[in-house]
Predict the structure.
Amino acid sequence: MKRRDFVSLVSAAMGTSVILSCKKTLVDNQSSLHLDLMAARGGGGVPAQRYPLKFPAILSHNGGILDSKLATSDLGGGVMSNVWAYNGLFPGPTIRANDGDQVTIQLQNHLPEETITHWHGLIVDHDNDGHPMHAIPKGNVFDYDFTINQRAGLNFYHPHPHMLTGKQVYLGQAGAFIINDSEEAALNLPSGKYEIPLILRDATLDKNNNLSYKPASGGMFGKIPLVNGTRSPYLDVERAVYRFRVLNGANSRIFGLALGNGASFKLIGNDGGLLTSAVTINRIDMSNGERIDVLVDFRSVTNGTKVMLRDLRSGWDLLEFRVNSTEAGPEVNLPSTLSSISPLSSPVTTRTFSFDAMSKINGLEYEMDRIDWTVPFGVVEKWVFKTNGNAPHPVHVHGASFQVVSRRGGRNQLYPWESGWKDTVLLEDSETVEVLIRFNNYRGIYLLHCHKLEHEDMGMMANFEVV
Ligand SMILES: [Cu+2]
C-alpha cells in the first residue's frame, strides 16, 4: 500500500464511525445533554459530575483469548459508546505474567478488517512480535506462543496492521501487559488495591457519544481525556501510599502530569522497568507509548480532601483522587538502590535516522517488504535520532530496549524518566537524541517507527533485520 491510499483509508475510517454511530444506541436524554455540556468545556474545568474509575479485568497469560470485536462500553454515567474492544472491554483486559512464564494467547479477529496484536515493550521473536506482515484477515485467528525473558515492567499491547494502527487503537484496541519478577517482589511495593494501572488517552465523541476518528496529518487529538476508558473519573483512595502504573495510550497527545495539590511523585520505573533509584519529581511528561511507575503518598492528606491528577499541557483534569479514610497507612521504605542497571558502552557502529516530514525516515516511506538495514546480533550500536521538523516524534524500537545517552538542541537535556531502559523516546523539533542499543535476544525482522500513530500509518516506519 502506498501513501496515496492513506487518504482513502482515512475516509474509510470516518465512514466506519458514521456507520457505528448509526447503530441504535440507548441514550438517556438527560445524560446526553449533560455529557454535551461537559464536552463543551473541553474536558477541563469543573465537570458537574464524576464517574468511578474503571479497572480492566485480568486475562490469563496462559491459554487466554483476545477477541477483537465491535462492542459497546460505558464511558461514565451509563451512556454506551460504540468501540472496537478486546473481549468487549475498553480498555482491553490486563495481562499479568512473571519473568520466565510461557505465554499462549489466541487473537481472534472479529473486526471488519485485518489486524494483528503487537506487545509494545515485550522482547519477543519476530513471529510473535505482531509485525504488520503477520496481520490476519477478519474471521481468522493468530496463536501467540513465547517465553517472558525480561525485567518487571508495564507494557502496552495494541494492534499493528499497516496503515490501520491509529484507527484501531483509537477505537479501543489497547491494554496493559504487566510483567513481575523477583527483584521487584523483594521491594514490597504497594500491591493489590494500592497498585493501580492508569491508561491515559484522549477521544472525541460524536453526538451519539460514539468515538469519532478524524485524524489529521499532524495527528489525532481528542477533545476530552479518558482514563481506563472512563470520562471525568474519580478514585476513592485511603490515606496510604499508592503505586500508579501509567501508560500514555493516546494516538498523538503528550501529557504533562502533575498533582493539583503540588505534591510530588516518587518515580521508580519507566518503559523498561525499575530505575536504579527513586527520583522525587513534580512533573512528568509522557509521549505516546511511554510508561511510568510512580508512588504517590496520600498519608498526610486530610480525610475528605480531593487531589487532582492534571495534564499541564492541555490544562485538563484527568483523575480526581478522593481521600477517604481516617487512619494513615504505613510508610513505604525504599532501598537507595532499586535495581542494578549496567550501562551499555563502546558502540561499534553509529547509525543516524532522520524523522522527516510526517511520513519518512531517512527520506523513505515504509514498505512492508523492504529491509532498510541489518544489525549484527549481540553488539552495542549508537542510534542517533533527528528531525527536520513536524515533531513531536516519539521514537519506538521493537526487539530490544535502549539507553538514552544524550539530547542536544531543543530541550537540550535528559529527564529522570528517560534513565534506565527505554523503548520509546520523545524527539522534539531541533533535537538530536542518541541512544545505545543491543539486540541480544532474537534475530529477525523488527521495526523502528514514530509512535504518533498517524505518522506511523502514513509511513514513518522502517524494517531492519537482526542477523
Ligand atoms: Cu512522528
Notes: The chain is about 10% helix and 40% strand. Residues 1-45 have pLDDT under 50 and may be disordered. Residues 355, 393, 450, 452, 455, 460 surround copper (II) ion (CB under 6 Å). The two ends are 27 Å apart (CA to CA).
